[in-house]
Amino acid sequence: MRLNILFFCVLVFGLNVQAQQEIRIDNLHPRTDINGDTIDLHDGRVIKFGDRFYWYGTSYRNTTGFVRTNHYRCYSSPDMMSWEKEGVLLEDQPSGIYYRPHVIYNERSGKYVLWYNWYPKLWEGKFGVAVSDSPSGPFAIVNQDVEVAHTNLGVGDFGLFVDDDQTAYIIYNTIQGHQNSVERLNDDYLTSSMKNGGFIAAGCEAGAIFKRDSLYYLLTDYTCCFCTQGSGARVYVSDNPMSGYERRNNINRYPGTPATELIDGIRAPNLYASLTKNDDNVFSPAQIDFPKSRRFERVDIYFFTGNRSGMCGDTLAQQVHAQIVTPEFDLLVKNGLEWEKMNTEVLVERTSVFNKISYRFETVNSSSVLLKPLSSFPYKSIFINEIKVFNEHEMISSSDKGTQAFINDMNPGNTLPIVPAQQTYVMPLKTTNGIQFIWMGDLWGSASDNIKGHDYQYWGAPLEFDAEGNILPMKWTDSWTAIIN
């Protein structure tokens, strides 16, 4: 009897091991199918039905993308690595320009439902819907002009989301104003209930929704239109799938212009970053971001006293150079998503070409520090050679430890995306670490052969969250692995 129990345990354990599988996602090379051909799929989604992943997207081939030859395809895979072509999705496709195919499954009807955005003529946007008994299609068109609450404004990019209770929602933007909103679908998933939560943001596209720990996350950003620099990923959070969304942060935009010279460990006089004063008499601050929260209680700023205008040849001048004035700073640390001003003790050490300004304060634990120059500084620019952050006597601001420095104008719309991709979808992925969320985007213009259909896709490492449920900024990841089950 004991032997049988032992055999049963070994068998069950073996089955569990076999059910788990390591995947490796590579973002540096084109994704190919089992025949070695580059996969031409874009602006769709990857979703798991049963024991296979299905990748739906638009095939652009060697075109600009604004053509009537666009069509939808599907590939499937057991592991997101070995992809097999399933064929063309949509039967009897009317003449038009097609984008953004999304497929969801309706447990009530047992049907797979395809929603898509198409244009009989640019830019007269419509939503179409089609159904199939199989996730790989083909799908038969049910309605090629589905009415939604804002049909009168034209409809464009969209995403679909199915909640835990099997209620389905569409997030879409209008053509006029690119305003996005969330709307509940009817139980058949084929039509809209016309119940809409109201506009959330404007000038946006490529929205995606997912749910984590009873909170709904809506990600979108400014229009990109096949842009090579990519779009950001603004994060809105609510406890209601349709309304009440609060803007948190943007996880795919640098907090400013990178300024590695501030933390490169080289304190050479004429190697500095400039903090400049804008027309509102406000200086751009310097920001230091750590890869994770750190304890620190001292910040040293090395201010270069050179590069001051002179008065060469003016024999009546009272002094040849503009006076040396040491700038003052407000020092702030990030508490969650908010900046908190610190009470500091300031010490200034004056040397030949530097003023070292030391700020000391009670020990804090934070992932970011912001140095905002006061507008009382009389000149247009402040020249900073180095910023050093200390935990007791250990310097933690060296760039070789993953720390980053930026000149931050506090306007995320002026900054570049971290990942140069246009968002397509946020995919829930079941792993041995629980459900994780994969941000996906198209890297437009990335194909080395300049064929649009061969542009790469970026599938990011699982999103990371802090204790308050905020999504941490993304980092470009060449490749990553996970254990799926």
Compact summary:
This protein is mainly beta. Helices cover 4% and strands 47% of the residues.
Overview of this structure, please?
By secondary structure, this protein is mainly beta. The chain has two domains: 20-253 and 417-484, Tachylectin-2, Chain A, CATH 2.115.10; 257-307 and 325-414, Galactose-binding domain-like (Jelly Rolls), CATH 2.60.120.260. The protein is 4% helix and 47% strand. The radius of gyration is 27 Å and the shape is elongated.
CATH architectural arrangement of the largest domain? 5 Propeller
Tally of separate domains: 2
What summary fits the major beta sheet? 10 strands, antiparallel
Give the structural class: mainly beta
Write down the CATH class of the largest domain: Mainly Beta
Question: What are the salient characteristics of this protein?
Answer:
single chain, mainly beta, Jelly Rolls, Tachylectin-2, Chain A
Question: How is the secondary structure organized here?
Answer:
Layout lengths: L1 H18 L1 E6 L15 E8 L2 E8 L11 E7 L6 E5 L8 E10 L4 E9 L6 E7 L7 E4 L11 E8 L5 E7 L5 E6 L6 E5 L7 E9 L2 E8 L11 E5 L7 E5 L6 E2 L14 E4 L9 E19 L24 E7 L2 E4 L3 E6 L3 E20 L7 E11 L2 E2 L8 E4 L14 E10 L2 E10 L12 E4 L19 E6 L1
Antiparallel strand pairs: 1-31, 2-3, 3-4, 4-5, 6-7, 7-8, 8-9, 10-11, 11-12, 12-13, 14-15, 15-16, 16-17, 18-27, 19-25, 20-24, 20-25, 20-27, 21-22, 21-24, 23-24, 25-26, 28-29, 29-30
